[in-house]
Design a protein that fits this description.
Layout (H helix, E strand, L loop, with lengths): L7 H10 L4 E5 H14 L7 E5 L6 H9 L3 E4 L2 H9 L7 E4 L7 H7 L3 E4 L4 H9 L4 E5 L6 E3 L2 E4 L10 H13 L4 E5 L11 H20 L2 E6 L17 H15 L9 E4 L3 H4 L3 E12 L3 E5 L8 H5 L5 E3 L9 E6 L8 E8 L7 E4 L20 E5 L5 E5 L4 H5 L13
């Protein structure tokens, strides 16, 4: 059974100051999870987690993770600005972009970020723009189908990201000729898996590649970035990943492959977003309408603007009707938003307790790729983001958008001035 970190009484108090809908994050849960990850990989002296900023781009949350020893994984100029704003500097930022616009490598280099090149042609692009730094990482794509013991996980051969093995070898040689002293390897092959053998299987792939790159190019490999991909249990019957078991499995592969090759100084990096933040965020909404036609509908005061994953991917997010946790789930509903799109549904044919107008619904696991994927279709406005602090108080960490915010980019048009 999935348990909410808020009660109905807590939401009723919060809603007096911050009306629904709102995203809210659990500081205590975030900190505990970050500490568990760090402990699970404590066997590696250079271990560092670079939180995937795209998952939850909020400086207050980045600050919490910074305090827990995490860095930031960025893929755009704005994400670099966010990381800079919270004081992350040299060695704290991984810049993993693709089809990178001019100027972004320059900014990343100025911050002392590790630059991760998605394509071999980016070597010249980087060198011509700002010169190559002393340390450069390259992203690897093994191609084909990626399989684990329990079956096919993904198809890297169809992904636009990364370099082939031959390009990795050629790229390392070229970067060495340009003065690069230390190298990194990065790869992201699977998204949102709760298979505990993913990381150790990926580690074996990358560790083996590292040994080959060292032998063929003489490069000193400073770090290997296992990137993200570790998922969370969205459904009540899913088992959460045991991060301690994963860390121990990666350690065994490290000692089997890298240590005999004299590469026991290689740091392990991770780049997790969903695992770090997903379970520690929720979207709280209120039931405002009900409709009885060919199906039973509950309309809420949020929509896909607030949480796009169900509409975009058909993704499952568990729903708790606050105050009715112990009541039987004997009513079948589609829980829907107000967009003029039929896929604007948080749940389809979901068995829930009887919902009354005014009930609060807690939508689980929105802490990553929740608010971040929001948009303004239909002129809908994004909600506030709140932080449930460790002492039980609530802090607003992003205010709700207003119509003035929505119209702000029309500042050249006198027609919109009354709304600004």
């Amino acid at each position: 059974m999935k348990k909410a970190f808020l009660t109905k009484e807590m939401v009723e108090r919060i809603a007096k100051d911050y009306p629904t809908p709102f995203h809210i994050y659990d500081e205590a849960g975030i900190r505990k999870n970050a500490r568990n990850l760090k402990e699970a990989f404590s066997w590696n002296k250079g271990f560092k987690e670079f939180f995937a900023v795209k998952a939850t781009p909020n400086p207050y949350l980045l600050q919490i993770l910074k305090e827990e020893g995490c860095g930031a994984d960025c893929s755009s100029m704005s994400e670099l600005y966010l990381s800079e704003a919270v004081g992350l500097g040299k060695g704290d930022i991984m810049f993993s972009s693709n089809e990178t616009p001019s100027g972004e490598f320059t900014k990343a280099k100025s911050l002392g970020a590790y630059i991760n090149l998605d394509d071999i042609t980016h070597i010249d692009f980087l060198n011509n723009e700002c010169g190559v730094p002393d340390t450069v990482c390259m992203r690897y794509n093994p191609g084909g189908i990626y399989e684990l013991e329990n079956g096919i996980m993904d198809n890297p051969g169809d992904a636009k990201y990364g370099n082939t093995k031959e390009q990795m070898i050629e790229g390392y040689r070229k970067l060495k000729s340009l003065g690069v002293k230390d190298f990194g390897i990065h790869s992201f092959l699977v998204s949102n898996t709760i298979a505990e053998d993913y990381y150790p299987t990926l580690a074996r792939t990358l560790f083996t590649l590292a040994v080959e790159l060292k032998e063929k190019t003489g490069a000193h490999i400073k770090f290997i970035n296992l990137s993200g991909g570790i998922g969370i249990p969205y459904r009540p019957d899913d088992e959460p990943v045991d991060i301690f078991k994963v860390g121990e499995s990666v350690r065994r592969v490290y000692e089997e492959v890298l240590v005999p090759a004299g590469m026991d100084d290689v740091a392990i990096f991770t780049e997790l977003g969903r695992f770090m933040m997903g379970p520690y965020g929720a979207l709280v909404v209120k039931a405002i309408h009900e409709k009885h036609i060919y199906k039973e509908y509950i309309g809420v005061d949020a929509c896909a603007v607030n949480l796009m994953r169900p509409a975009m991917y058909g993704a499952y997010h568990h729903i708790t009707v606050l105050g009715k946790e112990n009541e039987p789930a004997d009513h079948k509903y589609d829980v829907v938003g107000s967009l003029c799109e039929n896929n604007d549904k948080f749940a389809i044919d979901r068995m829930l307790p009887k919902i009354e107008i005014g009930d609060y619904l807690y939508i689980h696991d929105t802490g990553a790729h929740g608010f971040a994927m929001g948009y303004n279709y239909n002129g809908k406005l994004k909600s506030a983001e709140l932080l449930l602090k460790e002492d039980g108080t609530v802090k607003m960490i992003r205010r709700a958008e207003t119509a003035a915010d929505y119209f702000r980019t029309f500042d050249f048009d006198d027609l919109m001035k009354p709304y600004l």
